[in-house]
Design a protein that fits this description.
Length: about 100
């Protein structure tokens, strides 16, 4: 997870795709929360093999663009990313 957090400061991203459980359960949300602070216009997508109501609610609270259940079809993921990129800036209002 520390590698992901370091990369946030090195490169500007349009979309972040994060596994929900990177090293321990739920730490993907920590990466998304950091991204929202450092790059508020970046769209965030969560991948999980263990979907549940609580993590879906937390994803909604963090305004994730998509919550996908693994295994994910890579072509579908890429299409979703392209769609999100084409619409995301119009929906995001950066916090000041």
């Amino acid at each position: 997870m520390s590698d992901a957090l370091a990369q946030i400061d090195l490169t500007k991203y349009e979309v972040l795709v994060s596994d929900l459980d990177i090293e321990k359960p739920g730490d993907g949300f920590a990466v998304i929360a950091a991204m929202k602070v450092r790059q508020p216009t970046c769209a965030n997508i969560i991948l999980t093999a263990y979907p549940d109501f609580d993590t879906a609610q937390q994803a909604i609270r963090l305004s994730v663009a998509d919550y996908l259940i693994k295994p994910v079809n890579v072509e579908e993921l890429l299409r979703n990313c392209a769609e999100i990129i084409s619409h995301w800036p119009q929906r995001v209002i950066p916090h000041r």
